[in-house]
Amino acid sequence: MRVINHGGRAGLERAGRWLDVEIASDGWFTHDPMAVYARWDELREHAREFDFSDAEPVDETQLLAPVPQPRQIFAVGLNYRAHAAESGLDLPEAPFIFTKFPASVTGPYSTVELPTKTVDFELELVAVIGAEAHRVEVADAWSHVAGLTVGQDLSERELQLSGPAPQQFSLGKSYTGFSPIGPAVVSVDEFDDPDDIALSGILSGEEVQRTRTGDLIFPVPQLVSYLSHILPLLPGDLIFTGTPSGVGWGRRPQRYIQPTDELVSRAEGIGEMRHRFVSSPTRVLGQGGNGA
């Protein structure tokens, strides 16, 4: 099952065509894109009976974030071995968690403002919570995940790494538009192996990141279990699972996003996002440092 947000309405997508969930279910489900995650299993059962013969073509200009208003966004730093190496840091013994603020969420084809000249790209697989997870064991964790989507953990490096520890990770990664996700949330059962998905990121025609999620230090089930033993994970919550090596900060010379760039973010079985950028100078305090 592939869930999209088409012009603010929850939809199911198949082969480039979509059905409005509220209309297709005769009102059994609301059009609210956030509402589907609390009833994910129920929707998946009903979706088997939906008739796609009258489905309309998907209009990419209408595709918004498939999870537009998550209550909680968790993100994981240094969750690929090669990325830890390029950052000059030891492998973490436990997941390194920070948060991104929900107002930073945007869709898969939006234009993002660059507040400074040091905004970095971080391609990520994003897990979307379905059933509430509280003190969940690793073996049961996938049953609490509605599906997976593509994300970018865009990072303004100066603010992120300013000051003494603890540094400003959450602020530096939460400017407007800094949490793009999409183009769809794909249910876990659609993947041959949800623990091993190919990811690639392309910046203005140059492939800058490539990996498979089988290389994650802490895979999705471990992250869900770890976080759920600290606090409940709620339907529609997002977990940005970490970025592979190749980020702009770690390159020599460093490569940050420019207003002329196009960033393409792809995940096997999910699809791709495409983002353009415009300059919007903003006063930022702080000094540069290690990337994560």
Largest sheet: 12 strands, mixed
Report mean pLDDT, rounded to a whole number. 94
The proportion of strand residues reads 25-35%
Specify the CATH class of the largest domain. Answer: Alpha Beta
Write down the Rg: 18 Å
CATH architecture of the largest domain: Alpha-Beta Complex
How many beta-strand segments?
19
Count of alpha/pi helices: 7
Low-confidence stretches: none
Structural class: alpha+beta
Structure, explained:
This protein has 292 residues and is an alpha+beta fold. It has two domains: 2-64, no CATH class; 73-279, Alpha-Beta Complex (Fumarylacetoacetate hydrolase, domain 2), CATH 3.90.850.10. The chain has seven helices and 19 strands. Strands 1, 2, 3, 4, 5, 6, 7, 8, 11, 12, 14 and 17 form a twelve-stranded mixed sheet that branches. A five-stranded mixed sheet has the order 9-19-18-15-16, with no helix packed on it. The longest helix is centred in the last third of the chain and has 9 residues, at 220-228. The protein is globular, with a radius of gyration of 18 Å. The protein starts with a strand and ends in a 13-residue tail after the last strand.
